[in-house]
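Sample pair:
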Amino acid sequence: MIRNYVKISLRNLIRNQAFSAINIAGLALGMASSLLIFLWIQDELRIGTHYPNAAHLYRVMEHEITDGQIVTDDNTPGILADELKKQFPEVVYAAGFSGGEDHVLSVGDKVARQSGCFVGTDWLTMYSIPLVAGSVKTALNSPTSLVISKKLAEIYFGNAQAALGKSIRFDNRNDYQVTAVFENQPAHSPDQYDFLLNWEGYLKREPWLNKWDNYGPGTRLQLRADADPNRLNAKLKTFLKGRNKDIGPNFNIEMFLQPETEAFLYSNFKNGHRDGGRIDYVRLFIIVAVFVLFIACINFMNLATARSVKRAREVGVRKVVGAERSSLIGQFMGEAMLLTTLSLGLAVGLVMLVLPVFNQLTEKHLALPVDQPVFWAALVGLLIGTGGVAGSYPALFLSSLNPVRVLKGALRFGASAQLFRRGLVVFQFVLSMLLISGTVVIYQQLRYIQTKNLGYDRENLISIPSEGEIAQKFMLFKAELLQSPGIQAVSSMQTNPLYNGNTTESVSWTGKDPSAVISFNNTAVGYDFAKTLNVKFIRGRDFSPDFRTDSTNYLINEAAARRMGYKDPVGQPLTFWNKPGKIVGLIENFHFNSLHDPIKPLIIRLANRPFGNILIRTQPGQTKQALASIEALYQKLNPKFPFTYSFVDTEYEKLYRSETVVGTLSTLFAVLAIFIACLGLFGLAAFMAEQRTKEIGVRKVLGASVSSIVTLLSQDFLKLVLIAIVIASPLAWYAMNRWLQGFAYKIDIDWWVFALTGLLSVGIALLTVSFQSIKAALMNPVKSLRSE
């Protein structure tokens, strides 16, 4: 019997090639989209979870309670790790961590900028970093120890074994000895680095980190397997209370632990509570995958139902000769599973074909994990789930047909069946419109971000690191650059113009409440700072070499002036880090952090030497010429360091790379969803036209025009689309409004977004239905009425 069913299924596939092709293509596209999203989500979920001890690894986080608000981050004192290990028996290993910095490593004439970290001696053990040369016990024991990746060992020395014991020059200042070589970090590791340096050496290099009231690096812990992190959290809450006496009695920082397995996905905190992060995008794409797959399944149902009249007599004959309903359900479900299996094979092929492009788009290294049982389990689940959902309604519907009515040729469907099919179409278009309107809003927000005035001009602005001899020769470098063609202004800035994480509470002014703890962002700049960034002064002036006292004077932004209560702050006293001075300039607010965050109070001081970044503004249209001048002069004054630069506007776009990827993927999946939904609408149009063939014939005999018949057949579908618009619009507004809450600066969702979505949906529906409507309207009424 099964063999007979297979034969019948194959014959139907071959006999109805167009119908089969549409069905297979729709399901294949839906499943391919779901597979791509599955691979992306799997990669996101495994970040930070691949370590053998992942279940016992934690990051130390801090709630900083200032100015009535709670700011959460992972900045801790540099001496915290060793102290926690001493004080708490639950802590097996502890290590400080300062990463994400590029440094110049040189061996002879091999000079290159590499990314590395300073870490505690327990780091390699905690994270089970595999070594290809050297010993874990001695790898980071000395302040001059250097552990490098296998990749760096091959670049500088040829292989890992040859690297052991060799010296590498670090930033042309110190020589470090290679004590171990580790395997290259996997792409899904949350901490990416090519070398590691000893923590004690870092504390000597940055002595300010040896105080309890200074925060900057991170701290990682590994707890005992039987330790209760909640009990340790209770102890950590007040751990810093007595160790911050220099700041004052109202200073309050509460520490807590965040599992390493959650750190990547749950990175956002709002007023002391976890508030999403990358997990929001994971949830979003789970919803998108379900939407697209449901639309594909509904498409299958509608197409199968549209062809049901062709199979009705077959069902009637089978029932007359004794076939039970259960066997008929099995037959049609088998056919659905056969189509789904073919679609799944095509989907896997599509995924393999587009995966390189998908990887480039998402900046990942995804591959089909054919060696993992979970992948095959996912494929089987996708096959059974899709086949079961797609084939269930057609199987139940066809098996329920009355054989007497079918064999008499009186096949008509009741109101409940029609309502169900129309409900499927409404559901399809609701899902499709949610994706379309979401894509429009995401595009608008990204466009808003890209074009928003940040308060300074990021165009034609170049940033280069201030390092090596260029810092000592900065005045000469600046003077010669200003004489070069294409250079408009030169200055320096301690922090990146796009990101300033430096904060302090050590600020006082006239009228300040002595019990208040208020946090200010701060940075140090060189002369011509305002001219180089093109920030605007409301009152006062920029720092100038004509005023010797500027070394203790300050600039503030509008947010700082409001927080201090100054209406006219210029000339008012201000004490910063116990250094009294005066405010000499009030500048307009400008964005020095992500648009996810509001502009915060900022204090700017004059740097006694350039450090951090050198900022260079070029003349519009002369960037290429200016870069050549900058590189030539840089290599002349700083020959031991490679010349590297970045455009501030390009770096700005990178800040919102995640949102850009989400927008692009949403657009692609929205287009796929609409295409698949149109296939379903096409199927339902064919079904309804087939059901009303004789009605159309009678109308034509009575004189109905082609246009009136097309209108008659189309208006039912337009009603369904209008219902979908009414349902989808408030749902889309709610969902996108929730997404926009993650931005401090955002667009307003305009009514026309939903009007545009509705018009697109109506237009697409009309185009899809019109083919079948016109075909039915042009049919010869003699043929349609002949059976009567």
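The radius of gyration is 34 Å.
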